[in-house]
Amino acid sequence: MLVHARSKGESIALVPTMGALHTGHLALVRLAKRRADRVVVSIFVNPAQFAPNEDFGSYPRTWEADLAALSQLEVDLVWAPSVATMYPEGFATRIVPGGPALAGLEDAFRPHFFGGVCTVVAKMLLQIQPDIATFGEKDYQQLKVVAAMAHDLDIPAKIVGVPTVREKDGLALSSRNAYLSAGERAVAPTLYRVLKECAAHLKGGRPVSQTLALGRAAVERAGFVVDYLEARHAGTLAPIARLTDGPVRLLVAARLGRTRLIDNIAV
Ligand code: AMP
Fold it and tell me: Which one of 39, 100, 214, 238 has the fewest CB atoms closer than 10 angstroms to its CB?
């Protein structure tokens, strides 16, 4: 299908996912459809980006529902390789990303993560050879890491970011939201609410360190264990001391019971 499309001069978009598709993923597919003639969605729960203590085994797998949603959107190809196809016996190469992958955000808590993401995304980009690939801003550091990798390795695909899709109450859609108990689900929108409050305070002139300290305390009061709440340069992810060092992005990761949630917004 891809060879045929290419020979006709059609453009191809890749939407990499780990399945358990929700409306956020479907927004990536919709944008891909607007930007390219053919859309390939990959579904692969990538063992290389999970640490041994993480949720690879229990990660939600909803194959039938995923296929139904993708066929409604009329995607051209679903690429769902097995682990043995992606990492056959003897596989021995791993990408070691730097720059935004060492910003001290997700990487500080999941040191294996971006190496695993880059390795699988590079393989997918080389397998499919898309003109564009869509990634969600929900995983903001990941979007920056993948864009840097594609640029640094001369992979010709354009990496396109897609705004975060949220529930009505502000909670960013995530496959991991399925882990939340009813009580946790009620508390989970706090993350987005606090991000918005912090952004308003920063714009109102409150100093960055004070804003973040108050924000962290508010997230903790709601019952989370905070991994980080940070204000970073939206392009480089470097720490910023004041609003004028921006454009600024606020990024948070926090754990609610056994579920780890991340979110971010522009200031
Ligand atoms: P995942 O299946 O969680 O690895 O996510 C696959 C892609 O969907 C990634 O590029 C994510 O950033 C993106 N994504 C996940 N949740 C959302 C969301 N709520 N809004 C927009 N994109 C999302």
Answer: 238
The finding on whether 49 has its CB within 6 A of some atom of ligand 1 is no
Half-sphere exposure of 101 (CA within 13 A, CB side): 19
Q: What are the two backbone dihedrals, phi and then psi, of residue 212, each rounded to the nearest 5 degrees?
A: -70, -40
Catalytic residue among 4, 22, 25, 233: 25
Angle at 60 between CA 59 and CA 61, to 5 degrees: 115
Is residue 190 within 8 A of residue 159, CB to CB? The reply is no
What is the pTM assigned to this prediction?
0.96
Using most ligand atoms within 8 A of CB, pick from 17, 143, 251 the residue to mutate for ligand 1.
17
Q: 186-210 burial, b if ≥16 CB within 10 A, otherwise e?
A: ebbbbbbebbeebbebbeeeeebee
Q: Using CB atoms within 10 Å of the CB of residue 41, give its burial: 0 to 12 exposed, 13 to 18 middle, 19+ buried.
A: buried
C-alpha separations of 62 from 108, 179, 218 in Å: 30, 14, 34
Q: Is the CB of residue 174 below 6 angstroms from any atom belonging to ligand 1?
A: yes
pLDDT at 3: 85
Ligand 1 mutation target, pool 30, 138, 167, most atoms within 8 A of CB: 138
> For residues 67 and 59, what is the distance between their CA atoms, to the nearest angstrom?
17
